[in-house]
Amino acid sequence: MQRLEKYLKKNPANLNSAAIAYLASLDQINTVYPAIAQAIEQELKDQRSHLKLIASENFSSLPVQLAMGNLFTDKYAEGYPHHRFYAGCENVDTIEELAQEELKKIFGAEHAYVQPHSGADANLVAFWSILVHRVQNKELEKLSLKSIDELSAEEYERIRQLMNKQKVMGMSLNSGGHLTHGYRHNISSKMMRSVFYDVDPKTEILDYQVLAEQVKKEKPDILLAGYSSYSRRLNFATMREIADSVGATFMVDMAHFSGLIAGKVFQGEFDPIPYAHFVTSTTHKTLRGPRGGFVLCKSEFAEGVNKGCPLVLGGPLPHVIAAKAVAFKEVNSVAFQNYAHQIVKNAQALAEELKSKGARVVSGGTENHLMIVDLSSFGLTGRHAETVLRLAGLTVNRNAIPGDKNGPWYTSGIRLGTPATTTLGMSESEMKEIADIIFLILKNAKPTTVEKTGLPSKANAEVEPKILAEAQDRVNSLLNRFPLYPEIDI
Predict the structure, then answer these.
(1) Is 476 exposed, middle or buried (0-12, 13-18, 19+ CB in 10 A)?
(2) In angstroms, what CA-CA distances link 212 with 169, 176, 231, 241, 316?
(3) What's the pLDDT at 459?
(4) What is the DSSP letter of 192?
């Protein structure tokens, strides 16, 4: 019990129950597998020593983290509440229903499904539920049958091929879409035909009139809205009208901005819940929960979505569902709404400060939690910038810009996000300091030669030690003022 004993001796008058539980769990892990306990502890140290600016990451609370380590991990619970394929799931029913109800209250949704293990799983559940509803069920009606088990092998194969011929249209990866929105290397493009829409090449913003014309031409069966690296709001009322014009099912993947919906930052026509047939999301990112996913839908689709197992998923993870419920309870608060609004204020402050120094921000700014910085003027690739910023104590990820000539591996940009720094308590003044540090590193970074590193010239870069040390000192100053999990004293 070395970690816990050290903490108790150091803080006899100021003990924190969550910290005690966390440290006790590390000590228990250490008795079985010390290397794992050390890796967990090292991850805490690493996250404390770098500013997290990855738009898709955040810091969940200790209660959320602790909720994942519980007895529910031993339970199989295929099915859904009160309709399980295993006995002994009464308590799983309880936590799953609590998570569903909390989620419906947050978003005003008609139905919630909280079993998906990730956003990708949530999208697969939604896709296949749509295909079953649009194609399979209608074909069964034509044949006056109630179940696919009544189909002959030939009939089933015909329906299966019909489902595979359906078309999905989502934002291209190059314009800010996600892998699961029809990208050629993802299963979404192999289970259906996929086509894409793009942002305007000049403004780098989605043009709804152009989208409407393209939708009428392509006639997709599913119109998919959502993004991974697009810094603007989407008008879901307009997109629903466009979907309705061709009879498409309207699906929204709000994984990146679900916290901004929950926090009442995006409202009215910028809230997808009233307009979309299906809405999917992760439970981390701006929502600040455990890693996982969920699906929201209209009541008419509930039966199909509830059959995510056996349709797509295997056994749900009840221990993670417990953590989701705890996170949803945290989200359903005024404090979270204040947090969500600050995320956007911080992102806008960061973007404006970078622009004032001469950096180009894709689309000219941000209306959400993220931005893409074009590195062309610095003579760097995204891989260069990602590497040197990490050395300075800033964790970012490289990201393609619209029309990127460097492709999706090296890229010509970096993506920056403010959910995690906002969780630490930072505000606009800290964002200006971070922008200054980023610019200092980028303007002084130089690609290294192939001979020096053995890597392609697009892969690595360096900064003078004096400048790097200055940046590190400034990052450390911020981290010392806004510590991560200060209650955990290791």
Answers:
(1) middle
(2) 12, 19, 21, 9, 38
(3) 78
(4) S
Q: What is the mean pLDDT of the chain?
A: 95
CA 393 to CA 468: how far, in whole Å? 9
Q: What is the pLDDT of residues 7-51, one digit of tens each?
A: 888 888 788 998 899 999 999 999 999 999 999 999 999 999 999
Would you state the pLDDT for residue 455? 64
Element (H, E) at 80: strand 79-80
Is residue 189 within 8 A of residue 243, CB to CB? The reply is no
Smallest CA-to-CA distance from 444 within 468, 416, 414 is with 468
Residue with tokens 């040390």: 469
Q: What pLDDT digit, counting tens, does each position of 419-475 carry?
A: 999 999 999 999 999 999 999 999 999 998 766 666 667 778 999 999 999 999 999
324: which 2 tokens? Answer: 């989701």
The pLDDT of residue 457 is 72
Q: Which strand (E) or helix (H) includes residue 119? A: helix 119-131
Residue 115: other Cβ atoms inside 10 A? 32
This prediction has a pTM of 0.95
**Would residue 461 be called left, alpha or beta, if left means φ above 0 and alpha means ψ between -120 and 50 degrees?**
beta
Both tokens of 300, joined, read 């008419």
How many CB atoms neighbour CB 407 within 10 A? 12
SS3 417: strand
Q: How far is CA 486 from the centre of its chain?
A: 25
pLDDT at position 453: 60
pLDDT at 2: 86
CA 110 to chain CA centroid, Å, is 22
Number of C-beta neighbours around residue 213 at 10 A: 12
Q: How far is CA 288 from CA 163, 314, 325, 332, 420, in A?
A: 35, 25, 12, 12, 9
SS3 at position 436: helix
Alpha-carbon gap, residue 34 to 434, rounded angstroms: 36
Please state which of the ranges 8-17, 73-82, 113-122, 202-211 shows the lowest mean pLDDT.
8-17
Rounded to whole angstroms, the Cα distance separating 431 from 57 reads 17
User: How far apart, in whole angstroms, are the C-alpha atoms of residue 243 and residue 247?
Assistant: 6
Residue 269 has pLDDT above 80, yes or no: yes
Domain architecture of the chain: domains with CATH: 2-48 (no CATH), 71-331 (3.40.640.10), 334-481 (3.90.1150.10)
